[in-house]
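Friendly challenge for the regulars: who can give me the structure tokens for this chain first? No prize, just bragging rights.
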Amino acid sequence: MALLIIIMVSPPFVSSLAYIQLYGRRGWITYKLLHLDWMPYNRWGIILMQAISFTPLNTLLLNGLLNKVDFVAIKSARDLGAKASHILKDIIIPSLKPGVLVCLLLTFVRSLADYGTPAIIGGRYRTLASEIYIQFMGAGNLEKAAAMNMCLFIPSIIFFFIYRAMMKKINSSPSQAQEGTLNLRMHKCGPIGYGVLGVSIIYVIVMVLQYATIFLTAITRKGSFPFKFTTEYIQQVFNYNTATLYRSVIYSLIVAVVGTLFAMFFTYYVERQKIRLSSVFDCIATLPYMIPGTCFGIGFILAFNHSPLKLTGTAIILIVCMLFKQLPTTTKICAASMSQISKAQEYSARDLGAGRLRVIWNIILPNMKPAFLTCFTYGFTSSMTMAGAILFLVAPKTLLAVFKLFDATYTGEYGVAAVVASIIIIVVLAVEGLTYILTSLWEKKHVPGTGTYQKNLWG
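First reply, four minutes later:
Bragging rights claimed.
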């Protein structure tokens, strides 16, 4: 789980950078160790790196679905003498089928919109997303890039409504989770279990190699094997690129705070108050999750490239784009937290004469403090690592660290790219660690069984 979290918070293009260093024409494994001379820049490299990059999100989603597995059925099967392999095949895997279909949808849409991986390791093989990037950034043909985006936008919208229908079905199914653990050992599940165990071990080894490669590339000379350590790339980054790092942190903090507060108020009025057209607003808020980044970025350019809202080239358009791109997840986190707050408290306060704003300030917000910290962490992390949309919106005065990472990887400055990627990972993990500590302290102040708190930290 710790490894999956690290992968989730990693900036984009990290997998491509490690792929080049490990398996490229002069890769540490293919050329230095095995003395192979092969061309890894093709469609198979794209497929492999995308599959590795999209695995953590799918794993976390399926892990959540395990809480809905019918533990009573599992205990009954064991009492009747069923083998572990039969339990896995006949109970657990069928229970995960809806989640597997959702993972297929998400992976399809994300791979459809990924332009960084094909642009870096695709070689002469191009995808539609990478061709859009070339037409926009290289040829400056905005009209053609916008027209090509429709080929991404239409299937994404279709799959978005399929995704909403499937998630609604999953969420409506009753949870059968009970106290305890599944306690199903993979090595006792026959060939399927051994296959799952083997793939998992291989994946862990590949991920450890990937991140070890990133950190080693940041502190070793290019092409040196055995390694010769150097601080050249670190000095280069801190001498010429500190402004992009500081700017990324500041923008991410703004997005995290503003986006979290907006999501909390949005969820309160849509989910709690059930205002008119609440289902429409919820659909609109979820839509950015499925819209490809290229569509999102070019859409912002076309919408805000003229008066009276000419925002292109400014920090505002970057912040707004980041805010709306992470809105689907933050609203879902707030909705899950708000569902745990008893409506009796709110009704009692209103009966005693409290206005709606006072109810929000004194009841809703204090009880949503853990959700606030979670949304803040997600907003900061997603903003620090977002690339799909903002690479079309950045200007020379608003360059961010993730743009420097892509530029350095694309031009072959692998040492600089590794340093930038390492700094982003360390900053994000530090913020997540601090949030975890604050959340733990907050939970200790909670009075069990009352739904109230010993101290109102909002006051």
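The mean pLDDT is 80. DSSP finds 21 helices and no strands in the chain. Your move, everyone else.
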